[in-house]
Amino acid sequence: MPNAQVYVQLTLGLHSPTQYVINTGIMKLSLNLKTTPQGPLENDLVVHVALIAESQRLQVFLNTYGIQTQTPQQVEPIQIWAQKELVKAYFHLGVNDKLGLSGRPDRPIGCLGTSKIYRILGKTVVCYSIIFDLSDFYMSQDVMMLIDDIKNALQFIKQYWKMHGRPLFVVLIREDNIRGSRFNPILDMLAAFRKGVVGGVKVHVDRVQTLISGAVVEQLDFLRITETEEAPEFKSLEELDLPKHSKVKRQSSTPNAPELEQQPDVNINEWKNKPTYEILQKLNDCNCLASQALLASVLLKREGPNFITKEGTVAEHIERIYRRAGSKKLWSVVRFAASLLGKLVDSLAPSITNVLVQGKQVTLGAFGQEEEIISNPLSPGVIKNIIYEKCHLQDEREAVVQQELVIHIGWIISNSPELFRGMLKIRIGWIIHAMKHELKIRAGDLPAKDLYQMSPSEVKQLLLDILQPQQQG
User: What is the SS3 assignment for 10?
Assistant: First the structure.
C-alpha cells in the first residue's frame, strides 16, 4: 500500500498555523484543532449543596433572613448520617473469617466519600462531612475555622472529583453556629451559597430530593445480612445525641468567653487527696465548667473512665463538659477536656505527610523536654501515642494544641512553602514557645494573653504572624 500523508493543522490562537506531515501507510486524515491562548479549559464542576438545619425552629429563624433549609424530617425517607455511621458500614467490607480478613480500618471517610448517595440495607442515605461532627476534634466548633474547612472541602471536591454525576455536599447548620458574634460570618457564607459561588467554587443549592437525581449512587452490596445474622445498627442525624438549646436567637455577646469563666474556682492540689465521695459531691454542686473538668480529671486518674457519676461514666461526663464548653467557646476548658478524652484530629497523619514530602522533619514534644523526631509517615495510632506520651508532662492542653499546629502547618506548607524556607526540622514545641513569647511582647507591661484560651482561628493567625516576622509592624 502506498504511504498516505496525514496533514494535521494546528491553529494556536492568533499565531500562524503549524503544519505537520505524518506518514501512516494506512489512511489520509485532515484535522483542524483549535485551542485558546489560555490553555486547557478550567474545571467547571458545579458542586450540589443541601442546606440542613438542625431543628425546625432554626429553619424558621434562618428563613427570616431568606435562607431556605430543610430539616432531617423533611428529607425522609432519605436519611442523613454522620460519616462515622458510614465507617461502621464499611467495616463489613472484605470481612472473611476463614481467610482471617478484617474489614476496612476505623478511619474517617473523606469529603469525596461523603459526597455520594448510598443504598444501605434498603435505605437511601446521604452523609455530612466530618467537619460538622460534634464528637470529632473541637477545631470545627470555632465558626471561623468551620467556614475555612467548608471552603477547603469544596476546593478539594472541585479539584479531585472524577466520577460521573455531581457531588452532593451536605452543609449541617447547628443552633450553636448562630449564637452571638458567630452569626454574621455564618450568614455571609450562607448568602454566598445562595449567590452560587463559595471560595471560588460554583455551587448549586437545592432540596435533597431534587439533587439526588444527578448524584452518584453507591450500592453497598457487601452488607448482605442473612437470617441468622444481626443487622448492624445505624443512627440517623435526629437519633444522635445532639445538644439542645431552649431558644434560637441572636445573642449579643463578646467573641470570646470572659477569662473568669475559663478559670477554675477549685485548687486541684487540694482535691487530689480528698475522698471520692467528696469529689462527686463537689462535681454535682459546682456550676463552673473549668472546675468540673478539673474534678473529673481527678476521678479519671483515680477511678478510671468507667466509674459512675451522676451524669453517667466519668468519660461520658467529660464528653458533656467538652460539648458544653465548646458551645460557650471556653477554649481552655475545651482543650483540657479533649486531652483527657485522648481526642485525635482525623487529618493529623496526612498533615504530617504534607510536611515530610516538602523535605522537612517534624518533632513532637513539649519545649525543654524530650522530643520525638518524625521523618517517615506514621499511622494515626502511632502518632497519638507519641503526642500523649511526650506532650502531657507539663500541661494536658499541650497535647491538643500541638495537634492544632500540625494541622495548620500541614495546610500552610502546602500553600506557602516559602514560609518554611531554611527550616529542616519543624519543632512544634519550640513553635508554641515562640508563640507564647510573641504574646508576652505584644502585652508589654500587662499580663500576656493565654495561648490556651485563644480560639483555634486566633492560634492559626498567631502562627502565621510568627512565620512572617518581616510583615509585622
Answer: strand
Give the β-pairing of 30-35 and 5-12.
parallel
Decide the pairing of beta strands 117-120 and 217-219: parallel
Distance of alpha carbon 176 from alpha carbon 162, whole angstroms: 35
The two beta strands, 312-313 and 308-309, are antiparallel
Report whether pLDDT(473) > 50: no
Cell of 439: 504574646
Q: Is 425 helix (H, G, I), strand (E, B) or coil?
A: strand
Spatial CA neighbour of 52 closest among 24, 22, 18, 80: 80
Q: Kindly give the pairing relationship between strand 18-23 and strand 5-12.
A: antiparallel
- Condensed to tens digits (0 to 9), the pLDDT of residues 274-294 reads 888 888 998 888 888 999 999
CA dist 330 and 320 (Å) reads 13
Q: Tell me the residue type at 391.
A: C
**Nine-digit cell string for 7:** 496533514
Handedness of CA 425, 430, 435, 441 (dihedral sign): negative
**Which residues fall within 8 angstroms of residue 321, CB to CB, at 6 or more apart?**
289, 292, 293, 296, 333, 337
Single out the residue of 355, 318, 346 nearest to residue 334, CA to CA: 318
- Tell which wins on pLDDT, 393 or 55: 55
Model-wide pTM > 0.85:
no
pLDDT band at residue 360, thresholds of 50, 70 and 90?
A: very high
